Amino acid sequence: MTTERDPNRVYYRAGGFEQSRPILKGADAKETFEFIPIVDVTNVFSPDLEVRKKLAVEIGRAVTEVGFFYAVNPPVDTRLMGFEQSRPILKGADAKETFEFIPIVDVTNVFSPDLEVRKKLAVEIGRAVTEVGFFYAVNPPVDTRLMGILLRMILDVIELIDYPGSVPLNQWPDDVLPELRKVVYEYYRECFTFAKALIRIFALALDLEETAFDETFNAPLTDILIQHYFASPDRKDHEEILFPHADFSAFTLLLNQRDIPGLEVLNANGIWVPAPPIEHAFVVNTGAYFELLSNSRFPATLGIERFSFPIFYSPDPATFVKPHPALVKEGEESKHTPHHIGQRYIKGLVHNAPDHPWVKKLKASGIKEEDYKWELLSQPFAAENGTA
């Protein structure tokens, strides 16, 4: 039996539960946002801490007041974002002063205990990244004999291959789009680097040391999805395929396709504010995990979209998450209950994708919910369970 909904309220899903808030107009309306702020993130990799802190203040304000912001000029190739551009070939008197070779940086001292030595290396890397965007890192702290093995191990983890009895998590349409996998991984790698930098900016925005969340996001859990939810005029609100929701991740990098509107963000008055696509920009929003880590200083704002290409960035699946101690005042009780990221992810996967081949194997294995752990994704189930 369907419960009748109040037309003066807006309904959404947050924390795994359906909730609602009143639609406020006129004298009852609160002071809230009416547009999505735009932040230029060009300096996200600046070697100057003060420059990064200035960016953090701007992002912190956007996340605190809205929960969403446009990150324009991110360090991700426009070609991969679907906004291919061109530039003229300049010669002779028209030529600009630019680089003609890839700089070489000796990274022997990357783990030096001397801060001044690391700062000197940072200046050198910063100059290379700012002027060129690439550099050779010579003498890295990795045995050259192991570098090829390491790459193979990374690919094994990414694709979950070479594990007899396991089921690949990524299902690619190689038969019809053979080039998709390569392009998606190339895009993912650039977004991942940007996301790692944003974590430190978020820490600065919370008045913490920029390394405050490094351990929490040591080997972050990331998901990349391509989503298209078809509108259905005959459906009622409560029957929509995509219900308005808050993301469960720490934050999301959302790539909206140009000329295809769809994303809307809910403000305090229960009014949906549109977020139309902007070229060479991500829509960034904080999710439930950052609301927890920040002790609710960074809220998980509600949104809804119909066509999107999001990357969800969450803490290391081996960690228990809780508000950062510096954000809980003395004598104050934390607003959130700590929980294990890996176990929660598996529970969510089972609930949201019951027909996935891996989920079917997990259910058939007889493993109890309290025994769910992240490692189950990369190892076959025991033969005695009849699933190997």
Largest sheet: 7 strands, mixed
Which fold name fills CATH's third level, the topology of the domain at 20-82 and 174-337? Answer: Jelly Rolls
The first-to-last residue Cα distance is 41 Å
CATH class of the domain at 20-82 and 174-337, named Mainly Beta
Helical content class: 25-40%
H/E topology pattern: EEEHEEHEHHEEEEEEHEEEEHH
Q: Output the CATH homologous superfamily of the domain at 20-82 and 174-337.
A: B-lactam Antibiotic, Isopenicillin N Synthase, Chain
Structure explained in plain terms:
GO terms for molecular function: metal ion binding; oxidoreductase activity. It comes from Phialocephala subalpina. The chain contains seven helices and 16 strands. The two termini are 41 Å apart. Helices cover 27% and strands 16% of the residues. It has helices at residues 49-65, 115-131, 144-159, 180-205, 288-293, 341-352, 357-365; strands at residues 9-14, 17-22, 38-40, 68-72, 104-106, 136-138, 221-224, 227-228, 251-255, 264-266, 272-274, 281-286, 303-304, 307-314, 320-321, 339-340. A hairpin with a 5-residue loop joins strand 10 (264-266) and strand 11 (272-274). The protein is an alpha+beta fold and 388 residues long. It has a domain at 20-82 and 174-337: B-lactam Antibiotic, Isopenicillin N Synthase, Chain (Jelly Rolls, Sandwich). It is globular.
